[in-house]
């Protein structure tokens, strides 16, 4: 799926993007609050300043993803793979990390 299609679907009310392949995508400043990204492939994605509050990122791969300044409050990151992910300044209040 390309980023523009993702933005359109989210704006139209779609929230389930399970297993979506967005490896290397530029998603800087995107609002995906409450989105279901279970099992999503987000390796090397640019998610700087993204709003991922209350998002379900369980089982997602975020290897090398740039999450600087991203809002991950109340997000579910259980079983997510975050190897080499950049989390500097990310908001992780009440995020599930186990």
UniProtKB/TrEMBL annotation:
Tell me the first and last residues of the signal peptide: none
Under the heading Pfam families, the entry gives:
Pentapeptide
Transmembrane stretches, start-end: none
The family database entries (InterPro entries) matched by this protein are listed as: 5peptide_repeat (IPR001646), Pentapeptide-BTB/POZ_domain (IPR051082)
Coiled-coil stretches, from where to where?
Answer: none
Which Gene3D superfamilies does UniProt cross-reference here?
E3 ubiquitin-protein ligase SopA
Stated name of the protein: Pentapeptide repeat protein
Q: Which organism is it from?
A: Nostoc punctiforme (strain ATCC 29133 / PCC 73102)
């Amino acid at each position: 799926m390309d980023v523009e299609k993702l933005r359109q679907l989210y704006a139209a009310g779609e929230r389930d993007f399970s297993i979506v392949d967005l490896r290397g995508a530029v998603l800087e400043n995107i609002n995906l609050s409450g989105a279901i990204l279970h099992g999503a492939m987000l390796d090397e994605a640019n998610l700087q300043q993204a709003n991922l509050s209350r998002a379900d990122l369980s089982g997602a791969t975020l290897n090398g993803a740039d999450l600087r300044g991203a809002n991950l409050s109340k997000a579910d990151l259980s079983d997510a793979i975050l190897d080499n992910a950049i989390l500097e300044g990310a908001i992780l209040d009440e995020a599930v990390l186990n």
